[in-house]
Design brief:
The protein is an alpha/beta fold. The chain contains 13 helices and 14 strands.
Length: 366
């Protein structure tokens, strides 16, 4: 039996009637951009994250981009982030006209190493952008302390961390702002693109509202330059349905991750930091035999992916930064060894057992 890396169909079959009713309501209302569904979702997601404001935007990349602009990042500035991330993290920095600067990562959590962060700060550093990778929140206390000491805002890339926690607080409530993606495969995924920025700061929320809608507060009266980046009403309505299930889905992900943990041998399972509550957007193991393991699993009909095989600083698109292999040794070593296994709420326990047994067969061969 083939085991797909991910399968969105079961979730949507279960929610078909609720989603149909929600989308039909949008059609009946006849209002598709910046309407009552978007406003309701923004309130509900802000409450979920434990903040006062949420601004829906067109994607996670745009959420990061607009958040950086809202906190004052300008062309020529630098933003410190991690290199083991999806390239869109760096793309958003580039969209703001700034230069990404990369701190190395903790080899257990795959998140920004606070001990390496401070050495990367220069007079041009205008924001710190830790990535809550795979559903694990970065070690925010020392990162926030560095930001406070240098007067640099910290913006969370929470695009993979819906419902993840740090010291009892949810991702999205830790930095001055946080960016979320609602790409369909996320723990909270739309049926298309979508994103949001959360913040406790009403001034920043107001800036974001202007930036996402051409710089206008009143129609056809533009106070500043802006963009077209708005979460549409259909996606907002769908997200409102799914948000009610997010905690349950996350608990299921955690239970399935624990099952993997109990069964796997010969690979290094994900580490949940003591300060964190992992949301397990992805279940990422490490193996020195990664490529061999991925090929073997494919032969067994088991889908896997690598998130991400080439760190951003080694991507052709960022060659202009002048960085070469060896400058981020932990990041590079992890990128050579990581493998994402199937994990989603509808994945059967028997399928997890089958994946683990296949891995154990190969690793026991030595």
């Amino acid at each position: 039996m083939r085991i797909d890396f991910n399968d969105l169909k079961p979730q949507h079959r279960q929610l078909r009637e609720e989603i149909r009713a929600a989308t039909e309501q949008v059609l009946d209302d006849g209002w598709f951009i910046l309407g009552k569904q978007g406003e309701a979702f923004e309130r509900e997601f802000a409450d979920y994250c434990g903040v006062r404001h949420c601004v829906g935007v067109g994607s996670g990349t745009e959420a990061i981009h607009l958040a950086l602009l809202a906190c004052g990042v300008q062309p020529g500035d630098e933003v410190i982030t991690a290199s083991l991330t999806a390239v869109p993290t760096a793309s958003a920095i580039s969209f703001a006209g700034a230069t990404p600067v990369f701190a190395d990562i903790d080899p257990r959590t795959f998140t920004m190493d606070p001990a390496d962060l401070e050495s990367r700060i220069t007079p041009r550093t205008k924001a710190i952008l830790p990535v809550h990778i795979y559903g694990q929140v970065a070690e925010m206390d020392p990162i926030l302390e560095v930001g406070r000491r240098h007067g640099i805002p910290v913006v969370e890339d929470a695009c993979q961390a819906h419902g993840a926690e740090h010291g009892g607080r949810r991702a999205g409530s830790l930095g001055v702002m946080a960016a979320f993606s609602f790409y369909p495969t996320k723990n909270l995924g739309a049926c298309g693109d979508g994103g949001a920025v959360t913040t406790d700061d009403p001034v920043l929320a107001d800036r974001l509202n202007l930036l996402r809608n051409y710089g206008q507060r009143k129609r056809y009266y533009h106070e500043s330059k802006g963009f077209n980046s708005r979460l549409d009403e259909v996606q907002a309505a769908i997200l409102r349905v799914k948000l009610r299930y997010l905690n349950g889905w996350n608990e299921t992900r955690r239970a399935k991750a624990r099952l993997y943990d109990s069964l796997l041998k010969g690979v290094t399972p994900p580490h949940e930091a003591g300060y964190a509550r992992h949301a397990y957007h992805l279940y990422v193991v490490r193996s020195s035999r990664r490529d061999e393991l991925q090929h073997y699993l494919a032969e067994q009909g088991i889908g896997t992916l690598i998130h991400y095989p080439v760190p951003v600083h080694l991507q052709e698109a960022y060659r202009d930064l002048g960085l070469s292999r060896g400058c981020l040794p932990v990041t590079e070593r992890c990128a050579d060894e990581i493998l994402s296994l199937p994990l989603y709420p509808e994945l059967l326990d028997e399928q997890i057992t089958e994946v683990a047994e296949a891995i154990n067969r190969l690793t026991s061969e030595g």
